[in-house]
Amino acid sequence: MPVDHYENFPVASILLPRRLRPAVEAIYAFARSADDLADEGDATPEQRLAALAAYEAALDRIERGEPGHDALFERLAGVVAQYQLPLQPMRDLLSAFKQDVVVSRYASYDALLDYCARSANPVGLLMLTLYQQADEQNVRDSDAICTALQLINFLQDVAIDLHKERIYLPLEDLNRYAISPAALGHVDARPRWRSMMAFEVERTRALMLSGAPLALRLRGRIGFELRLVVQGGLAILDAIEAVEYDVFRRRPQLVRRDWLRIFWRALRMKSQLKARAKAVQGRVRISRETP
User: Fold this and answer.
1) What SS3 class is residue 151?
2) CB 201 within 8 A of CB 137
3) Segment 181-203, tens digit of pLDDT
4) What is the pTM of this model?
């Protein structure tokens, strides 16, 4: 399946067991189409919200066991029944997509985390449920990884989001570093911008590393795929640093040589994890103390 712009979903990966691919594709189709209702096309905000409300109503019908779904929700209903998937993560995704229609700024880091808890974390929970690995510790670490992936995407796409008149950087951080949201598109070379982005990158890296032990606990394909996901996210953060945080003119992207390095780091992840996490915690503390 194409994965054009849904950043946090492993779709039909070559590492995904064949038996789970139809289930993942059904969940992806739901999430992708719902996200498009919120973001794509020329619909008015009222039309977008109404379309997402119709998706919520379809989930309610699945919960009640009612027939008569269209093809997308018929497939989803079958997957929900087969794997006993909870519907709340899907409702959380719809909640985040509805928020995208009406909210374009986040006053605080906590407010942004709340959004990520609904826009990204449900994906990890659904995947863990498919693999029958959704215990409390695994879900906690999965939430950290998924939120970090979402934040990484925000840091990578500041310019793209600004073009859509959205800012996914906490306004409290912009204020702390004396950066005006109105002048955000002209701050790429300023020391205050680089200092703030350095802080955002380090905080996000620390969050990713806090959840990374999940990739070592899970066995088999899911564990190794998750190692690649973690290392891929960390590589994007490295790339943001490499362009000196100038994400306006040089959007960081991974190329083929990066994936070779990511594969190698995934193989050696256990030996690297402790040292890197310790170093990151130290840098976050320093960044927090010196705006």
Assistant:
1) helix
2) no
3) 888 877 665 889 999 999 999 99
4) 0.87
